[in-house]
Design brief:
The chain is α/β, with parallel strands linked by helices. It contains twelve helices and 13 strands. The strands form four sheets. Strands 3, 4, 5, 6, 11, 12 and 13 form a seven-stranded mixed sheet that branches. A two-stranded antiparallel ribbon has the order 1-2.
Length: about 325
């Protein structure tokens, strides 16, 4: 509760310093920001990023004492400590960490607004931070990245591939690609594709256990389960019935993989059992003959993947370039 209260206090201070666009729309007030306040915010952010007043001073070409005075003015205005300082060390406080994140977002929007007005956004550039789930990132996104980086040589890419639950806005990501249709008022969500599913096994496994022909046959097979980090439960397998009806099947198994779906793919490749996954994750192995799709008479289901990005008034050129690249590329190369 103390941390939440601190955050509310910090955000109130930030609104006073740099203005809240939503508040501005509703209240029709004017920004109360001068160059000194913005300069202090920029210097604070750089000191927090570099972990040193001296390093920040070198970056801005001023003295460390000047950085210290700027930070002190912010602390006095906010009524909170942004840094814990001793003679030997300096560390951002919890309140300082929250304020830093809010300031970074605000300063980025200001910079993007300036570039939009001056026309400097014509060439997408800068660091683009992307968060993507393991299976989609490894088998779907990474094969496309060389074309993107060649097309946009001034964009630097930082790619986080993980199934762990994140708040990508809080963690500073520009883009996230996630399973499902997301509903979050802070975000713009666009469905990239419906990824078709299939059940796969290695030929050596099928030689030992036989090939399942019906859903009832799954009871006698080793079905590798993926336990979702979102729910803590095994992911349900999706099938179509003889008349096209949707069937959600909960497998029974003594084999489970937590948090990383790629572990299930590796396990089935090793001949460990059956696993339902996306066809894009197994296409190469099936083509080589390393995997075989079974129960194709019950196939036809899919899961949607969406691209997400913050609901900013001024969308950066790098984000716009990446979103349009994926939309164009994936529509040109649909997954069957």
């Amino acid at each position: 509760m103390a941390l939440l209260a601190a955050r509310a206090h910090v955000i109130d201070g930030l609104v006073e310093l740099i203005g809240d666009p939503l508040f501005m729309q509703e209240q029709a007030q004017t920004l109360r920001v001068d160059s000194v306040q913005l300069g202090s915010i920029e210097q604070f952010c750089k000191a927090a990023e570099l972990g040193s007043f001296t390093a920040a001073a070198e970056f801005f070409g001023v003295s460390p004492a000047a950085i210290s005075r700027s930070v002190s003015r912010l602390e006095q205005r906010l009524g909170v400590r942004l840094f814990s300082r001793t003679t030997r060390s300096m560390k951002v406080t919890n309140e300082g960490e929250l304020f830093w994140k809010e300031c970074q977002l605000a300063l980025e929007q200001i910079a993007e607004a300036e570039r939009a007005i001056t026309g400097a956004q014509t060439v997408p550039k800068g660091l683009l931070r992307i968060s993507v789930s393991a299976a989609y990132g490894t088998y779907r996104l990474l094969p496309l990245m060389p074309k993107f980086t060649e097309t946009y040589p001034q964009i630097d890419i930082e790619l986080s591939i993980s199934d762990k639950i994140i708040d990508f806005v809080e963690e500073g990501f520009d883009i996230a690609i996630r399973l499902g249709i997301q509903r979050d008022s802070r975000l713009v969500a666009y469905k990239l594709e419906d990824a078709s599913l299939g059940v796969f096994a290695a030929p050596e496994y099928l030689k030992k256990k036989g090939t399942p022909r019906t859903l009832e046959d799954l009871e006698a097979h080793d079905c590798i389960q993926y336990v979702s980090p979102n729910t803590g439960r095994p992911v349900t397998w999706l099938f179509s019935g003889e008349n096209g009806q949707e069937i959600d099947h909960q497998t029974k198994s003594r084999m489970r993989v937590l948090n990383d779906a790629l572990g299930c793919v590796a396990w089935v490749n090793a001949g460990g059992g059956l696993y339902q996954t996306y066809r894009f994750a197994t296409a190469s192995a099936v083509k080589r003959g390393d995997l075989v799709e079974v129960l194709q008479n019950h196939a036809g289901r899919s899961r949607p993947f969406s691209i997400l990005y913050p609901q900013n008034r001024h969308l950066s050129a790098k984000v716009r370039a990446f979103v349009e690249f994926l939309r164009t590329t994936l529509s040109a190369q649909p997954v069957k």
